[in-house]
Every structure is written in structure tokens, then in C-alpha cells.
Write a structure and sequence with these properties.
alpha/beta, Rossmann fold, 3 domains, six-stranded mixed beta sheet, five-stranded parallel beta sheet, binds 6-O-phosphono-beta-D-fructofuranose
Length: 548
């Protein structure tokens, strides 16, 4: 069954929210705290090892109840059922959206075209497990009978960002294998990786759902050529494996049928790290940790499916985001993890969030006249504090931010951990409260400044505050808690897409550039005169040809 197609701006809840916005847009967070006793308590969700505080948001009880009304009015509950039960909610590509099936227990049943797909999923999981164990233990050896030392994941987009982010985030849990990622078609990327490798002890995992992606196939071909300069032809079957839905194309590339890890069309690329696309994760941190990641995601799925909306983490984080995006006209959102391990987290989320919800046509096929997809960006704290926080604190833009922190450090340096977390707490406090004129004045006075100097400096030192943040405090960074966190964002994306009445699971917007690049490539590599572009593109290509 298709998703409902409710234009959110025509709902009763939206009109009420619009009117309500006028009453609250200028209210300071400090006033919201003053008028709502136990606000932090009421606006905190404790779930498993997560403690999520959304009290520092520019919302009242009424705002939340209206946002929940909106969720109900656009049919969120019904959409969730269709999502989990495998309806074709990726309507424009005619596909189910079933990454959640990859993490259910073996006893579950999920049907695609009348067939339970769980046995197939577990067959592939078993293959991932056996293969990972054999590589890690050294039972599977290189062509020259040596244990493998390095793994190279060759893929791009969803076939790179998810595994790369998880491998980096879980590097504390890694084994002796060194895992590298080649994604960009920029030859300097692949060459920089190759130069660190010994072909005799390196395993290559080519990941491409379609096995037609230019970047991935170019890199795979370059690597195979480089490999064959040292190794005999029959070594390819020991060193190259592939993850794909396109078995024929993989075989044509020369990969042994036994070395193919299948995936399915009902798993979108940017949600695929839970499938065999996560093979490099399993190789790097071991299958048991990979399985814990999946378990964490499954727990978040269950929370999302069963929890009341007002205590449902993906639901209220999505609703808050809609509130800022569509009522405050906020242009972007920041995600600031206070853990260096999550260095790649925002980059990973950019594909999930912006490829999914960067749409301007609704589910009726009509052009949209309201804002959809949020711009997402971020870097780990405390580094980001010394880079772009100035703009969040005192700039002209409203940037809601999600702060993610872990109570326990992995290496156990308590002094560093307390310093890190003091910044984590201090920043959300500062963003909310700001610094008033009186406080600035008192501070300057205590420094013995003249009245004149003081008056000159005061305007620059005032912080308005009233900057909204969510705090997600998690006990410890583990494969399981990371799985929960990633799944939380996957569902947040889904909820936003439902509210905005868009199809979140296609990505036609990335096609045009690819097509034009193919045309230009043919032109660059032929001797023909090129004159069918606009003047600017024409000049640029010509200049490139002159100087390359
Ligand atoms: O960027 C577009 C895209 O289609 C992504 O959605 C996908 O993750 C990526 O390209 C890679 O595709 P493939 O896994 O088929 O190589």
C-alpha cells in the first residue's frame, strides 16, 4: 500500500503551529524554564543507555503537543507500519525500504513479494561471519600463503561512508587488520592508499550495489592492474571479494562466485552498512562486534516502533527539526559529537539526511512551496569550539545543534574525560543562557576598565543566548550504542520525509551530473572539437585541455 499524501501545510495542526509560533518565537529559553517547573525532567527521555534532554529547545508543552498532532495528522503511525512491513514506500523506484530487516532476530519474519527474506539474510550473515573469522584468524591466506594484514574497501556513497564511519568510530575495538577506504575517482586517492600496501597481504572488498558506479569500477580496475604487476592472475580469486546485487557484472569483473556477498534491492545504499556492505566493519572489529552493532540498531527499531510519540527519540528529534526548519526558517543543523572517534559521523549523516530529504516535489508529484531537507554539518567538540562555534554563539543565523557525548572514556583517562565533558555541558548551557549586559558590565568593571572603554566593549561581549540544543548523553561508545545512534538518525530521516510528504528513498538528483560527466569524459578523451556547451563550461574545458 502506498504512503498517504498529506500536504503538511494544509493540516489543522500546521495552522495551529503557525499561530502558536507567533506567540513563542521571541520567548527566551530562560523564560520557558521559568514558567515550566521540572521542565528538564519532563523533557528528558531515558532509554537503555541513552539520556536525551530536549528541554533546551524553543518549545513549550503546547508546541510539543501541536507537533505531535501534526505527526498524527500526516499519518505517521500508518507510514511506520508500511515502512517496517515492507510496503513499496520507495514508490518512485518501486522498492521496499527494509534495512530494518537486516537487524531483526532469526525468528522474525519479513516478507518481500510473499517470501520471508530472513533465512536469506541469515545465510549472508553466516557467510560474513565465516569469512571474517577466517581472514582474522589467518585460516584464509594470501596467494603466497601469508596471513592478510590489510583490507581495502573500494566503494563510494553508501558503499563507503557507512563502513568508513563505523570502522573509524569503533577503532578502539579493532583487531590487527588495517582497513583503508578508496572512494574518490581522483587517482591521487587510490595512489596514496596503494603506496602504503603490500599486494601480497592485502584483501580488496569491492562494494557497489549496482556494480556500475564509475568511481568504484575505475578504482577497482586500477587496483587490480597494480595487484597483477606483482601477483599471478589466479591470485585475484584469493584477494578480491565483492558486495553487490549485480552478480553478473561482478562475475564479469573476474570475481569468483564464492567471493560474492549478495545484497538486495530493498536495501538503499545509504542505509546498507547493516548488510554485507558492512563486511569491512566485520573484518576490522570482528563479527561479534558487527552483530552488536546490528543488535543496537534493532533495539532502536523496537523503541521507534513501540514507544509513544512523546517519548520516542526519533519522532521528537524529527519534529523539533521540522519546527526550526519550517517555522523559524533555520537553514541548517549541527551535529557535534564530543568524541574524536565520531570524527566522520556528520559526514556520514550528510548522505543519509541530504540525499534522502533534499527533495522539492511532494508525493503527489507537485512542486513544494515549503522547506524540506535540512543542511547538516558538524565536527567533534572540542575542536569545533575553536573553529565555528563563534558563529553559532554570536552569528546572525539560528543553528539548532545536537550534542552527542559519552559518559565513559574508552581509554579511561578521567582527567581528559572530565575536561571534555565539562565543555560538552558548558557549551549547551552557554548557548541557552548567553551572557547579559549586566554580567558583561560587572565582569569588565572588575577588570578595572574605564567607563568609556567599558561602554565601547559591552555590545561585542553580550551573548543573546536562546540557541537551541538537544543533548544525547550515552553511557559509553560501544558497537551496540553506535548501532542505536545510527538507527536513531535513520528513523529521524524517515519521520521528516513523512511529514514533508516527500519520497525519501530515491536520489534522482545525483543522476544529471553523472550523465553530463560521461559526455564530457568522452569529449576529453577524443580528439573532437567540443562546442556544444554553454560559454562558461566551454571555456573551462578548453583551458583544462590547454594546460593539463
Ligand atoms: O550517490 C548516488 C548513489 O547512488 C548512492 O545512493 C549510493 O550509495 C552510491 O551512489 C553508490 O552506489 P553503488 O553502491 O551502486 O556503487
Amino acid at each position: 500500500m502506498a504512503l498517504q499524501t498529506v500536504n503538511p501545510t494544509t493540516t489543522v495542526a500546521w495552522s495551529k503551529l503557525r499561530a502558536h509560533f507567533k506567540t513563542i518565537e521571541n520567548t527566551h529559553l530562560k523564560a520557558l524554564f521559568a514558567e515550566h517547573q521540572n521542565r528538564a525532567h519532563d523533557m528528558t527521555v531515558r532509554w537503555e543507555d541513552f539520556f536525551v534532554d530536549y528541554s533546551k529547545h524553543r518549545v513549550s508543552k503546547e508546541t510539543i503537543s501541536l507537533l505531535l498532532e501534526l505527526a498524527n495528522e500526516v499519518g505517521l503511525k500508518d507510514a511506520m507500519q508500511k515502512y517496517f512491513e515492507g510496503d513499496v514506500i520507495n514508490q518512485t523506484e518501486g522498492r521496499e525500504v527494509l534495512h530494518t530487516a537486516l537487524r531483526v532476530p532469526e525468528s522474525a519474519q519479513v516478507f518481500v513479494n510473499g517470501e520471508n527474506v530472513i533465512p536469506e539474510i541469515f545465510e549472508v550473515k553466516q557467510k560474513i561471519k565465516t569469512f571474517s573469522n577466517q581472514i582474522i584468524n589467518g585460516d584464509l591466506k594470501s596467494y603466497s600463503n601469508k596471513p592478510f594484514t590489510d583490507v581495502v574497501n573500494i566503494g563510494i556513497g553508501g558503499s563507503d561512508l557507512g563502513p568508513a564511519m563505523v570502522v573509524d568510530s569503533l577503532s578502539y575495538y579493532k583487531n590487527h587488520l588495517n582497513t583503508h577506504f578508496v572512494s574518490n575517482v581522483d587517482g591521487d586517492h587510490v595512489n596514496e592508499i596503494i603506496k602504503k600496501l603490500n599486494p601480497e597481504t592485502t584483501l580488496f572488498v569491492i562494494v557497489s550495489k549496482t556494480f556500475t558506479t564509475q568511481e568504484t569500477l575505475s578504482n577497482a580496475n586500477t587496483i587490480r592492474e597494480w595487484f597483477l604487476k606483482e601477483a599471478p592472475q589466479d591470485a585475484v580469486s584469493k584477494h578480491f571479494v565483492a558486495v553487490s546485487t549485480n552478480i553478473e557484472k561482478v562475475k564479469a569483473f573476474g570475481i569468483d562466485e564464492n567471493n560474492i556477498f549478495p545484497m538486495w534491492n530493498w536495501v538503499g545504499g545509504r542505509f546498507s552498512l547493516w548488510s554485507a556492505v558492512g563486511l569491512s566493519i566485520s573484518l576490522t572489529v570482528g563479527y561479534d562486534n558487527f552483530d552488536q552493532l546490528l543488535l543496537g540498531a534493532h533495539k532502536m527499531d523496537t523503541h521507534f516502533k513501540t514507544e509513544a510519540f512523546d517519548k520516542n527519540i526519533p519522532v521528537f528529534t524529527a519534529l523539533l527539526s521540522v519546527w526550526y526548519n519550517n517555522f523559524f526558517n533555520a537553514e541548517s543543523e549541527a551535529v557535534i559529537p564530543y568524541s574524536q572517534y565520531l570524527n566522520q559521523f556528520a559526514t556520514y549523516l550528510q548522505q543519509g539526511i541530504m540525499e534522502s530529504n533534499g527533495k522539492s516535489v511532494d508525493r503527489n508529484g507537485d512542486t513544494i512551496d515549503y522547506q524540506t531537507g535540512t543542511i547538516i554539518w558538524g565536527e567533534p567538540g572540542t575542536n569545533s569550539q575553536h573553529a565555528f562555534f563563534q558563529l553559532i554563539h554570536q552569528g546572525t543565523k539560528l543553528i539548532p545543534a545536537e550534542f552527542i557525548g559519552f559518559a565513559k572514556s574508552l581509554h579511561g583517562n578521567q582527567d581528559h574525560q572530565d575536561k571534555l565533558m565539562s565543555n560538552f555541558f558548558a557549551q549547551t548551557e552557554a548557548l541557552m543562557n548567553g551572557k547579559s549586559k549586566d554580567v558583561v558590565e560587572a565582569e569588565l568593571r572588575s577588570q578595572g576598565l574605564s567607563e568609556e572603554k567599558m561602554n565601547e566593549l559591552i555590545p561585542f561581549k553580550i551573548f543573546e543566548g536562546n540557541k537551541p540544543t538537544t543533548t544525547i548523553l550515552i553511557e559509553k561508545l560501544t558497537p551496540q550504542s553506535l548501532g542505536k545512534l545510527i538507527a536513531m538518525y535513520e528513523h529521524k530521516i524517515f519521520v521528516q520525509g513523512i511529514i514533508w510528504n516527500i519520497f525519501s528513498y530515491d536520489q534522482f538528483g545525483v543522476e544529471l551530473g553523472k550523465q553530463l560527466a560521461n559526455t564530457i569524459l568522452t569529449e576529453l578523451q577524443s580528439a573532437n572539437v567540443i562546442n556544444n556547451h554553454d560559454e562558461s563550461t566551454q571555456n573551462l574545458i578548453k583551458h583544462y585541455q590547454d594546460i593539463r
